[in-house]
Each structure stands twice: as C-alpha cells, then as structure tokens.
Amino acid sequence: MDFDLSKEQKLWQATVHAFAEKELRPRAHEIDLTGKFNWEATKKMGPLGLLGMMVPEEFGGSEMDTLDVAIAIEELGWGCGSTALAISAHNGLGCAPLANFGSEELKRQFLPKVVSGEGKLAALALTEPGGGSDLKGSIQTKAEKKGTDWVINGSKMWITNPGVGEFVITLVRTDPDSDTNAYSLILVPIDAKGLHVGPAEKKMGLNGSMTHALSYDNVTVPEGYLIGEEGHGLKYTLQTLDSGRVSIGALSIGLARAAHEVSMQYAKDRKMFGKTLADKQAIQWMIADAATEIKAARLMVYHAANLKDKGKPFTKEAAMAKLFASEMSERVCRNAIQILGGYGYSREYPVERFYRDTRLMTIGEGTSEIQRLVISRLEMAGK
Ligand SMILES: Cc1cc2nc3c(=O)[nH]c(=O)nc-3n(C[C@H](O)[C@H](O)[C@H](O)COP(=O)(O)OP(=O)(O)OC[C@H]3O[C@@H](n4cnc5c(N)ncnc54)[C@H](O)[C@@H]3O)c2cc1C
C-alpha cells in the first residue's frame, strides 16, 4: 500500500478500506455460504461515490480517475470478493458504456438511479452459451428494427448482476449481412417483457455475486435505447473491457492481499518443531514471493490506470496487468492455504474462500489465454 499516492488518493484508499472493513468483511463468510447479495452495504456505497465511479457528476456520478477506481476496487476485493465483483461489474461493465457512449437522454433516464444506491445495479451481457472468448464468432442474439423499436431475440450466459439489476446492456447482432459493423449495444430494462433472468448459477466461489443466464423472447425496447451508434457495439465493448481488466487486476490484488495477511499472522502464531512457522525458511520464501508479486501486480495495475488517465493507449498494459495480477492472486491464495495446512483447507479460515473467489479472475473479462493473445498481437506489431 506504499505506492507514491497523493494525499487525496491515500485518503480515498483509507476511506474505502474502512468501509470494506466495517461493511463487507464481517459478512463475507455468511454471503458466501448463503449466496445472498449484500444489499445493505451496497446501498451505503451510493453516497460514498462507489456506485458511479465512471459516471459524470451531472448524472449523479463521482467521475473518478481510473487510478482511484483501481484503489477502490482493490479495497473492496480485500473486504469481500463477491461484493467487489458485483460493484466492479456495475461500474465498469454496466455504467461505463452508457456513460461513455450513450445519448444524453438515455444517461439522464437510467444513470442517476443506479449510481445513487436507491435503485438496483447495472449489467453488461456479452457472453453467449456458444462462447465468450470469440465474441464475434459466437454472438447469435439478434435485434431487428420494427418501426421505432428494437426487437431482441436470443440468449446470454454467465451475466453478473441481472438478478440485482436495473438494466442490462446487451451486445446484439443488428446487421445479419455485414461482418465488421454487425454488432450494437442496446440497453434493456430488467423488467422488460420477454426478458427472462434464470436462477443464480451454482458456482465454485463468488457466491454473493449472482451470475445468470438470460433469454430474450421478442424483447421490445424503443430505438433510443441503442447505445451510441448502430454497428459500433464491438468497438465499444472492446474499449469497455480494457478498463474492466484494470479493475479485475485490482480486485485480484485485494484478494491476494487478504490471503497474504491471514497467512502471515498464522505463520507468526503457529508453533512447529519448537519454533513458529514464520521461522521456517520455506514459509518465509512463500511470504516473500507473495509480498513481491503483490507489489509488482499493483505497479502494473496503477501503470495501466495511469496511461488511461493520461489519454494514452493502454490496451496491452491493461491485459498484462490483468493477466499477471489474476495469476499472481491464484498463486498467493494457493500458498496461503498451504501455510495454514489443514486449517487452510477448512472453512474455519477464509483463505479457501479467497482461493475459490480469485479463481474466476483468470476467466472473467477475457481469460488468461485471451490476454496473452492480445499482448502478443500488440507486442509483435510493435505497439
Ligand atoms: C462468475 C462469472 C461472471 C461473469 N460475468 C460476465 C458478465 O457480467 N458479462 C459477460 O458478458 N460475461 C460474463 N462472464 C463470462 C466470461 O467473460 C466468460 O466465461 C469468458 O469470457 C470465457 O468465455 P467462455 O466461458 O465461453 O469460455 P470459452 O470462450 O469457450 O473458452 C474456453 C477455454 O478456451 C480457451 N480459448 C478460447 N479461445 C482461445 C484461443 N484463441 N487460444 C487459446 N485458448 C483459447 C479459453 O481461454 C478457455 O480456457 C462471467 C463468467 C463467470 C464465470
């Protein structure tokens, strides 16, 4: 936590940390077991600015730098992986494309409610049952123009937040003939007739962040619910994912830090062969590697965030930060279980939950393989 942050950034970090410690940590175990969303804490996030971090102030948001967003998401991830994922998806996937590309009218209609904490959350539906990595090749969901409406048919898979959502921005095919400009983003209110939200999927972790299949059965929305320009959906999506990857990197660091702290405390307390575990070199090395990798990941996340804030290209750096931070977090959480031995594997300690939660980070918002693809393409193109 000792990166050279400004006074304001440190204050923001301390504020979100205190919030996570008070509102998220104490309930993280319970919501993992029950699969209940932490609405109580989420409602309190509105006034703190945590629900509109990428939304301009004129629409009720707190419009923060990407670095401030990363700082906040790391702290939320430290407090509770489930809630942090829902809030990261709400800000970065649900609100951001509307704030960045939507019409004034649409922003005015939908953003103030979801950023205030009085409404529900926002979601982005890209992935389909046919696959998430190859978006272009797998999007079957179609929207057809009928008079002044869009009529949407199809299905989506693995979508975060619709069960606690106000609207879901949906990637659809709007031109069956074109290859390049075939896709668009359309806002669909969750209560739209014909939109069916499936039950929360049963998952390995992140149980307090609900993930749903969606089906669209002649869902009809006004033409003004199109985000930005028709045919630009894929471009908007890729830009949205670049920023989202910075957040997933930050979330991974929060989970790794939480596991690292528990494992250090345990190593100091646990006596074995006449000394504490912390005296054993094998344990010291795991602690040293964790500390080093957490710091390296944070520098990468902050660097990608900084580039974006300066208006510079950051696609490669965001992919690198996400790749490294998510794989690092898995290693750190895995070793935390190792340090705690049998207790690490039991639910008595939270490290097994951190491990289950962080496992998603190498999959969601582009798998590790896709990050490597993005990095190698840009690297070989000299970018
Ligand atoms: C908890 C959770 C929350 C999610 N939230 C959202 C959400 O809010 N919105 C949303 O749209 N989606 C969401 N997703 C979906 C997620 O983005 C996808 O799962 C992810 O993009 C991978 O897609 P897939 O599962 O279809 O795997 P596939 O694309 O089928 O990939 C399967 C495997 O093949 C590998 N692979 C694919 N292509 C290549 C290649 N070219 N080279 C090498 N390997 C390759 C992948 O890396 C992966 O290991 C969520 C998923 C989960 C589990």
Strand count, sense and closure of the main sheet?
A: 4 strands, mixed
Question: Helical percent range?
Answer: 40-55%
- Structural class determined from secondary elements: alpha+beta
Rounded radius of gyration (Å): 21 Å
Reading the helices and strands in chain order gives HHHHHEHEEEEEEEHEEHHHHH
The CATH superfamily of the largest domain is known as Butyryl-CoA Dehydrogenase, subunit A, domain 3
Compute the number of strand runs: 10
Number of domains: 3
Head-to-tail CA distance between termini = 30 Å
Binned strand content:
15-25%
Descriptive notes:
This protein has about 375 residues and is of the alpha+beta class. It folds into three domains: about 5-120, Acyl-CoA dehydrogenase/oxidase, N-terminal domain (Butyryl-Coa Dehydrogenase, subunit A, domain 1, Orthogonal Bundle), CATH 1.10.540; about 125-230, Butyryl-CoA Dehydrogenase, subunit A, domain 2 (Beta Barrel); about 235-380, Up-down Bundle (Butyryl-CoA Dehydrogenase, subunit A, domain 3). Helix content is about 55%, strand content about 15%. The strands form three sheets. A four-stranded mixed β-sheet has the order 1-4-5-8. A four-stranded antiparallel β-sheet has the order 2-3-7-6, with helices on one face. Strand 2 (about 140-145) and strand 3 form a beta hairpin. The chain starts with 6 loop residues before the first helix and ends with a helix. The mean pLDDT is about 95. The structure holds flavin-adenine dinucleotide.
